[in-house]
Amino acid sequence: MFSKLLEGLYHKIFINIVIGISSSVVYVEEYEKQKLLGTYSETFNTTTIDTKMYEYIKSFTSESPYNYIALLDNSLIQGAIPTCEKKDMSNYFDKDSSKYICYQNRWASYSSKPELNFLQKTYSTVGLDFIFSPFSILSRFFKDKINSTLALYILIEEQRISLAVFDNAELLYADYLKMDTIQESEDVLLYENADDDIDLDLENSIDLDDIESIDSLENFGDIEDLDTLDDIDEFSEAQETEEEIEENADESSIDDIDGFNEDYNRFTRVQHSINNYYKDARYESKFLEKIYIADSVGSSRELKRYFEEEMFLSVYVRRLDLSAEVCEIAKAETI
Question: Which of 25, 47, 71 is the last residue of a domain?
Answer without folding.
Answer: 71
